[in-house]
Amino acid sequence: MLDLMPITGFTLDLKTASYTNAIGDAQLLAGWSDPEFDPKLKAFYYARVLEIPTPRWVAYDEARFNIKGLMRVCSAISLAMKMPVVLRA
Predict the structure, then answer these.
(1) Given this model, what pLDDT does residue 1 score?
(2) Which of 19, 20, 69, 89 is the 20 to 30 Å CA partner of 7?
(3) Would residue 23 count as lying in a domain?
């Protein structure tokens, strides 16, 4: 099952292949606890952090060389960090 998260914001200008970093936070700090955690059992947790949407390289080419239609998708959301957390009893 694919769990989709909504985009937090979109500051991309595809005509100029530029964006502003005016959304989101510069630092991520969060706490979470598992109410069903049992220290006698092995546990595995996984966290992912997504970056804000940025232009793909073809968007830069389209803007710089004034070319249209290189690619239909001109933005990307990259995975900034993925971190497995493993707890052993």
Answers:
(1) 41
(2) 69
(3) no
Query: For residue 19, is it within any domain?
Result: no
Quick check: is 17 in a domain? no
Q: Is there a domain that residue 20 lies in?
A: no
- Using only C-alpha atoms, the chain has a radius of gyration, in whole angstroms, of 19
For residue 9, give the nearest of 59, 52, 39 by alpha carbon: 52
**pTM value surpassing 0.85:** no
Task: Say how many domains are in the chain.
Answer: 1
The DSSP secondary structure of 38-80, one letter per residue, reads -TTS-EEEEEEEEPPPEE-HHHHHHHHHT---S-S--EE--EE
Task: List the chain pLDDT tens, one digit each, 89 residues.
Answer: 445 556 667 788 878 888 888 877 777 777 778 888 888 888 878 777 777 788 888 888 888 888 877 666 666 677 766 676 766 55
d(CA 7, CA 50): 9
Phi–psi pair at 59, nearest 5 degrees: -65, -40
